[in-house]
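Entry:
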Amino acid sequence: MNRPRQKSSKTIQSEIVECRLCPRLVAWREEVAAKKRRKYIDEEYWGRPVPSFGSPRARLLVVGLAPAAHGGNRTGRVFTGDESGNWLYRALYRAGFANQSTSVRRGDGLRLIDCYVTAVCHCAPPQNKLLPAEILNCRPFMLRELAMLADVRVVVGLGKTAFDRIFDCIRDSGRTTLKARPRFGHGVSYRLSERLTLLGSYHPSQQNTFTGKLTEAMLDKVFIQAGRILTGSE
């Protein structure tokens, strides 16, 4: 029963990793991987598009913006090896969506539970800023992942860009009758259909966490709500 979907997931991830559609992003991710940060000078950087992570049968979909230059672009796993990832996986662990609270490298034992993590763009962008054309180039991957993730019941958009882009894909894939894009905010919840809910959260970037705009309690609340929706208690 699982094989077709697993095969589809592996095909999508393989194509993501080999993508070279955005010259600016290709140049940046490879430059960072070659020069490295002194702290990681002895490590081999991934330096390629970063694949998504999780089960194709997951009911929770988490969408971020893009890998960090010395995070996912170094480790090769989304939201891994930087503070944003530390915040995210601690929250997922506390809510029961991960088997451990740490995210250091591929092969560190981290396993997601009923959860799938992807991003608007799979390459690290300079200054963490994507160009519109780069977002469009990655959009087909998100549409294909969404089609594969037939069991998804709750989607969490981390930050306004991820929230807006995943809604557009949900709408364009016919999984909601809503036409107008919902308004982003932390903790917002929108019922897109009888079987699909979209939640918004501030992105766990250092810009938000260091300033107190996003606290661990605030992030926990979003994923606790996601769990309650999945269990039918909300």
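The chain has one domain: 3-231.
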